[in-house]
UniProtKB/TrEMBL annotation:
Organism: Haloplanus salinus
SMART domains the UniProt entry points to: A1pp
Protein name: Appr-1-p processing protein
InterPro entries to which the protein is assigned, alphabetical: Macro_dom (IPR002589), Macro_dom-like (IPR043472)
Occurrences of domain Macro (ranges): 1-167
Amino acid sequence: MEFTAIQGDIAEQEADALVNAAGTSLQMGSGVAGALRCGANGPINEEAVSKGPVDLGGVAVTDAYDLDADYVIHAAAMPHYGDGRATSESIREATRNTLEKADELGCMSLVIPILGTGAAGFDFETGAQLVCEEVWSYEPTTLTDVRVIAYSEPEHRTVTDIAERLRSS
C-alpha cells in the first residue's frame, strides 16, 4: 500500500473515500467537517447525524455528494459530549476502524486527516504520530493508496517527517 503525506484542503481531493474528523454525534461543524460539508453541496450533515451517535472510535459512512469521492467515512475520534477531548486510544481506534471500513467498502484510495486534533484539542504532532503509525502498520485487502493530509505547510512538514521516520524504521 502506498502511504503519502500531502498538503491541502481535503474537500478538493479525489479518492474513493474521504475521511471526516468527526465527533460521536456525527454533527458536522467546522474544520475538516465544515470543509467537507460545504464541498459536498448536499444533505451530508443530515445523513451523517441520522447514523449517529456512534461510540468513541466508531465510524459511519455517507454518500460524498458533490465531493470527488464515492464515500465520506466519518471517524469519531472525539466525544461530542462531556469534555469533547480526543485521547490516544480514540485516535488509534478511529483510524483503524476507518481503514477497515474503507477495505470493507472495496476502496482503493483514501484521504485521511489527522484525527482528534484541532477542535478536539489533541496535540497535532502526537496525533499525527498515532494516525501515521496506524496507517503504516495496517495490512489492507483493497486499499492501495492512503494519503494523510495536513492543511498548513508546518503541519504538512510534521506529517512528512513522521512518515519518513516510519519508512526508515
